[in-house]
Amino acid sequence: MRLRRATLCSRNAHKARELERLLPGWTIQPLHADEWPPEEGETYYENARAKAELGRRIGDPKQWMLAEDSGLEVAALGGAPGIHSARYAPEGAPAIAKLLGELEGVDERRARYVSELVALCPEGREVRGTGTLEGRIASEPRGSEGFGYDPVFVPDGEERTVAELGDEWKSRNSHRARAAQALLAAFGVAIALLAAACGADDKTENSVLAAFFAHSPRARALSARFPHRSGSVPCELRSSGSTLRATCSADVALVRPDRAVITLTEAWNHGALAHTWFFFVHRNGRIDSVVEEGAAAPH
After folding, report:
1. What's 37's domain CATH number?
2. In angstroms, what CA-CA distances link 24 with 18, 145, 171?
3. Which of 103, 155, 200, 230 has a C-alpha 20 to 30 A away from that of 219?
């Protein structure tokens, strides 16, 4: 895998180390800045984009600029601290103590982590990924790994906090891990589009997709739930006997006159989870190779 250097536009050393583990093939260094843009955006994306733009202005012009904004949204607090999580209270024990104090005597403990990653290439093009982790707030801190609110956040389906589950679990399942998976999938699509030498109109794209779905047993097995023209359609996935509402999308990028990348993506849990296939094919539909990114799809 080609090594890609990036500058993380953040003062948080924990995030730099975590993202370097989550983005294999990347080496990430923090941005050194005297002043940082105020986090005044109305969304995580707006805040992350502002940080990335600062890096593009003052950082190494030859490097990718990577920025992240994240937060904890607690249902009983109306979604707070949310995008204000970094300013809610000093990170660690003070923030946890404030949160538990506000939830004292409250039975409703539902919460979720949200992460938004934005990457700007040296030419200014953008790639982004979003991840969420649903769970609840524990009554007291438990565990020693992780950081932030991890000692009091219990993910859905678990009895232990993220701090108890540990960094190895977190590297596969955290909101930031899911955002990184989404970023890698989007990055694969962006590379295909940037490499495009001749483009393709709708008629060409549809003919490539038709040939692809007709050519091999693997493609035919996927053809029933994916659109046969570029775009998205509702679809259903099954997990543990339950039916999940999902979105299945198809995209074609012609990278040479006789070669194409076909991207098939299943997204579920309101887009928080996704499984993407990148099929490198000939225009006649013959598959050369396949790359998969993201969460394992339900059967």
Report:
1. 3.90.950.10
2. 11, 21, 12
3. 200
Domain boundary among 154, 188, 222: 188
Alpha helix stretches (DSSP H) within the chain? 13-22, 44-58, 85-88, 93-102, 162-173, 175-195, 202-215, 217-223
Residues 163 and 210 in one domain: no
Listed in sequence order, the residues at least 6 apart from 145 whose beta carbon sits closer than 8 Å to its beta carbon are 162, 163, 164, 165, 166, 167, 170
Rounded mean pLDDT, 9-31: 80
Alpha helices by DSSP H, listed for 23-144, are 44-58, 85-88, 93-102
Residues 63-89 have a mean pLDDT of: 91
- pLDDT at 298 exceeding the cut of 70: no
pLDDT tens digits for range 84-130: 887 888 888 999 999 999 999 999 999 999 999 998 888 777 888 88
Active site residues: 69
Q: Which residues constitute the domain of residue 123?
A: 4-188
Contact 263, 286 (CB under 8 A): no
* Token representation of residue 136: 């609840």
**Whether the Cβ atoms of residue 45 and residue 24 lie closer than 8 Å to each other:** no
Domain count, the chain: 2
Q: What is the pTM of this model?
A: 0.64
